[in-house]
Structures are given as C-alpha cells and as structure tokens.
Amino acid sequence: MARLVIVSNRVPDVSDGSAPRAGGLVVGLADALKPGSLWFGWSGRQNQGRSETVHSMEAAGVTYATIDLAEPDYRAYYLGFSNSTLWPLFHMMPSYVTFDRAEYAAYKAVNEQFAQALTCLLQPDDLVWIHDYQLLGVAAALRKLGVRNRIGFFLHIPFPAPALFALLPPADELLEALLAHDLLGFQTAQDQEHFLAALLAHGIAAQDGEVRRGGSVTRSIVVPVGIDVEEFRRLAGRAVRRVEARRMVESLAGRALMISADRADYTKGLPARFDAYERFLASYPEQRRRISFLQVAAPSREEVEKYKILRDELDYKAGAINGKFSDFDWVPLRYITRAAGRGLLAGLFRVSRIGLVTPLRDGMNLVGMEYIAAQEEVDPGVLILSRFAGAAGLLPEALQVNPYDIDMVAAAINTAMSMSLEERKERHAALLAHARTHDASAYSRSFIAELNRAL
Ligand code: F6P
Question: What number is the ipTM of this complex?
C-alpha cells in the first residue's frame, strides 16, 4: 500500500514523543495515519532567514517533519495573505479583507519552500494529501519541481461565491494552482459549486466536477469532515465525573447551562451571539434566572488587527450584559478567554442543556457534532446551529438559525429552554445518527479511496 503523506500548515505537537493530542485534523485523519505515514508542515517556530532544514520527530510510528518560517514570512504569509486576505474572503466577509502584493509574494515563496523541502522526503509511490487555504500553491510548486505523485487537496473552509472570489487580485493564478492537484475535496456541495462556477468565470468548464486539460485531470468531490463519535462520547462520560464538571453543575444551582466554545474569530459570530443572548434576556424575562450562558473563547491569531478589535468588542459586550442583567446571586454570562482542554469541554457539553453554535460562516464546524456526541440519550440537550455552518446540511434536526437575526436566535434559545423531553430525544437520536454516518473515518476513507482512484 502507498505511503500517506499529509501536508498542513500546522503539525501536531509530538515534542514529548507521545502520540499527538486530539484536535480537529488529528481526529479527522486518525484512521488514515498508519505507522510509516509522514506528516509535514510548519514547526510553529520562526527564525532569521528562510531555510529548508527539516526537523523530524517520530511518534506512534508516524514521522512528523517540520520546517521553520522566517520571521518576515510568518508575518506576510501567515498573518498576512493567509489570515488577512484568504481567511476573511473565503468566509465571505469582504469588509475584513486586506490585500498586499508583497504578502502574496511571500505566500507563494513559503508554498515553494514547503514544496522544496517536501521533494527531498517524497518517495515515488507516496500519496500526498495537502490541507487548507494556507497551502493552495504547494502542489503547483511540486509539479514545477517534477513531482508526479498523486496529490489531493482538501479545503477545510468555505469556497466563496464566485463574485467574491473574483475580488482576489490573484484569483486566476490560484485557480490554476488548484488544478495542479489530481483531486480536490470540499466540505459541502455549495463549496464545490462555487469553485466550479469560479472556474467557469475563468473560462474553464468542468464536466461532472472534473476538469480535463491536455493530459491532466483534476476531479472534485464533496466529503465532509467529521469527528470520532464514540471516542467523544467516552471522553464526555469520563469528563462528567471530573471535579471541574461537578463544580460547574453545583455552581448552576439548578439552572440550565447554555454553552458555546469557539476560537475567538470574527467568523464565529460572537458579538451577534452576545446581542442575541441580551435580546433573549430582555424579551423573555420569565427565563432570566433559569439560565446561565458559558462562552469559552480560545485566543487566536492575536497579532492580526481584526482579532484585537473583536477581543475589545467582546469584553465590552460581556461587561454590558452582566452589568445590566446580573443579580446579587446570578450572573447571566460567564465569559472565558482561555482555551479549555477537550476533556473538560466534553464534560461541560454533557451537562449543558443547550449548545449554541452560531458562526456567520464556517467550513463545517465540529463543535455542534461534539455537542451532540456528548449528550446522554436519556436527557439530551438541544443544539442551536447556524444555517451558515457546513454542518447545517448534515444536521437538519438542530434548531437552525440565521445568526444575523438576533430575534430569531433569541426565540430559538427560548424554544430550546422549553422543549419537551420527548422532542429533545427525537431530535437528538436523529442528529447522533447523522454524526455517526459522517464521521472522521468516513471522511478520511472516502478521500483516500478517491485519491487512489484519481487518473
Ligand atoms: O480549521 C481552519 C483552520 O484555519 C486550520 O487550518 C487551522 O489550523 C485552525 O483553523 C486554527 O488556526 P491557526 O492555525 O491559524 O491557529
């Protein structure tokens, strides 16, 4: 069997020699990563100049190979073109986009640096699977270096509507770069449609999601990323007995807990969510002292200006809500700006009556699936989910909302608070079945089977 080579901007930290800690991509690829596989990417470190020096570590039979980034590249490639241009544009938030030619040049140079370092590690039969928007140009750079291996790419974030994609000055060049892959994977049918429409606007027609030009073929597929449902259920079962979860329950004094857990990112819709919660407290006064809302917001990309602005806005809104509605013995919002471990979150999800997941736009969003997996079947909570998360298409029994409509979100919280046990059970059973069907192993197996099939 061919060796699998994963390429992603971030590589799991295995510096203590043990298997990587579970996170989105680690869980998504767990089934595919066999002893002998290679995972290549950025070390998370910056140094003086650009270098192709590869650092290798082994854990559980998998080799993790990384390169450092030069400090100016970290700024221009990572903070700049990746996270100030592509990230907001692909999430269809054009007012957040900045574009700088020098940053784009650095992005291409880093993608070439990745390719250069990778060629030295590749064997002729390796299957190469590249992940996400930071690395759109790696395959094209590999092809220029003469690499003929099968190369697949998966986009974890949305592909924007073609009119928005066209705003990107190097739009054409990036489409060409994507066609250097044998296989392109998208989270949803809409993402694939947007990509094919962007191609068409660029004068390239696809047939059945497939582009043939000269001797080369690029196929596109829809394959949603998922979680390991059983593993998360076990985690929640263990975590709920931990002292933190018990302390949480005690502190509620019989009130219902509503939980949200996100990276502190403007795409996650936190300010609108706080507004919706405030609207709920104002519009349904009878519910006020019956609920407590916990928002965990893990710091992210703090050197990007828009993220700093978000942080200030949330601090202000959280203070305003608590100042206005708190009582001597009740605080409506608990707002934590630290990351919480997966185990703790799983336990908190299990004891929460409502999971509130309202991104303005999201590639998939696995928090909703984790919330579903964490629930106990005898008394499950209710998932409120943005219709603009990729997961919405897979989870129709969630209470789906438009996150921009704060009255709608407020009404959904009220509905969730008063939903009968019977309805909660029915919805949860259906949602759990969907999460199981579209789980992590279905994701990696489907993608790799298609990559193996690529002509
Ligand atoms: O899921 C999207 C994503 O951008 C990943 O590619 C990335 O690793 C993760 O979110 C966290 O962001 P960052 O790597 O910028 O901290």
Answer: 0.96
